[in-house]
Write a structure and sequence with these properties.
The structure is a single chain. The protein is mainly alpha-helical. Helix content is 56%, strand content 8%. It is built from 16 helices and 5 strands. Helix 1 links the parallel strand 1 and strand 2. Helix 3 packs across helix 6 and helix 5 packs antiparallel against helix 7. It is flat and about 90 Å long. The termini are far apart. The structure holds flavin-adenine dinucleotide. The site of flavin-adenine dinucleotide has 9 residues, from helix 12.
Length: 335
């Protein structure tokens, strides 16, 4: 029997029971009828089939039940009898303590900052991908027989320097993390943004250097089918060989890897996601701007230049230091 006949390929249709509660005074019942009629149309639009409805008339929700314990039993029987797979409440009782942000908009910016801080610091992972690209670039240089040239070595040093810059800022952000009042640790926001901002640029430069070392063959390589061709295959094997002791196929494979990481499927993650993931570059610059402590830095410069005017420049470091620098100088209290 064909497998198709054993599997129902039709769209799954939810069988919904609608529930409304007429809480409050006169007029509540009419409103519930109106709401349930609208809910039925919404359920239909969403692809559910309405198989039952239940209305509760009561003064209000109890601490434990939105529709009262008796109605809950009635609802269960109705749902069982109608073969319902879904119960939709017109309204729902959600205790305030279970609402994530119950109108507390003063915490919105802080929540976004904390989320993006963790997220942007996590882009340190791109240095792992960078290690693979450095390895591929060094390998292709060897296969091309040029690994001892000083400018080749220097380009590998440059790639490593760039890659470690991402790593360093990510690790530093964690190292500078601090405990919040809840005891949960939050990484350093400035360094997290600096880490992510490096990630919007460095992989592109590393990709450029890897392509430089690979040579143009990386994008002009014939297809795998050509290598299997009885006539073309041996010719390609002969003319695309680099170093004598390296099989042509190995050279092809490492070139394909660099192509894949800098132009192909993995460039999605290594380049474009590095650029836009966790916010496009400007998002980090805004955050860096907000935290860059200009007044503290001005204070240092003005003190050294001896241009402090009484009243305009604070003389006590602790008066102007906060945020990142306060943690560096250990003058900050946990918040
Ligand atoms: C491969 C990949 C994977 C991703 N993975 C995830 C994921 O797992 N989870 C997730 O939540 N997101 C993910 N993202 C989404 C990522 O967070 C967004 O791409 C990013 O926030 C940028 O948004 P956008 O792509 O809509 O670009 P846009 O916001 O359209 O930005 C395009 C350009 O317009 C500029 N711009 C935007 N708004 C303004 C404005 N108001 N004024 C002036 N200039 C502006 C930007 O600075 C940028 O230069 C991923 C993205 C990519 C590319």
């Amino acid at each position: 029997m064909p497998i198709r006949t054993l599997i129902d390929l039709g769209p799954v249709v939810e069988r919904a029971v609608l529930v409304g509660a007429a809480h409050g005074g006169r007029g509540a019942a009419g409103r519930v009828e109106e709401h349930l009629a609208e809910l039925a149309r919404l359920a239909d639009t969403a692809g559910a089939s309405v198989v039952g409805r239940l209305v509760q008339r009561a003064a209000g929700a109890t601490p434990r039940f939105f529709i009262g314990p008796g109605k809950v039993t009635e609802l269960k029987a109705l749902a069982d009898a109608a073969g319902a797979t879904l119960v939709i409440f017109d309204d729902a009782f959600i205790p305030n303590e279970l609402i994530f942000m119950d109108g507390e908009t003063e915490f919105a910016a802080m929540l976004v900052e904390r989320f993006t801080s963790y997220h942007r610091r996590s882009y340190v992972c791109k240095s792992g991908v960078g290690d693979v690209l450095i390895g591929a670039a060094a390998t292709v240089a060897e296969y091309n027989g040029v690994e001892h040239a000083s400018h080749i070595r220097d380009k590998l040093v440059e790639m490593t320097h760039l890659n470690e810059t991402i790593y360093a800022t990510g690790i530093a952000s964690s190292y500078q993390s601090h405990a919040t009042k809840s005891g949960a640790y939050i990484c350093d926001d400035m360094l997290a943004n600096v880490c992510k901002h490096h990630v919007t640029k460095i992989p592109y430069e590393m990709g450029r250097l890897a392509q430089d070392l690979a040579g143009g063959l990386m994008v002009t390589l014939p297809s795998a089918a050509d290598y299997c061709h009885s006539e073309l295959g041996p010719l390609l094997e002969k003319y695309l060989k680099g170093r004598e002791d390296v099989p042509t196929e190995h050279r092809r494979r490492i070139l394909r890897l660099i192509e894949n990481m800098t132009l192909g499927r993995n460039a999605v993650g290594y380049l474009t996601e590095s650029l836009h993931g966790a916010g496009s570059p400007q998002a980090q610059r805004v955050q860096i701007y907000r935290q860059m402590q200009l007044s503290f830095k001005q204070h240092l410069a003005q003190q050294l230049a001896g241009i402090g005017v009484a009243g305009s420049v604070a003389t006590d470091l602790e008066e102007v230091i906060d945020g990142y620098f306060a943690r560096v100088f250990a003058t900050d209290e946990p918040n």
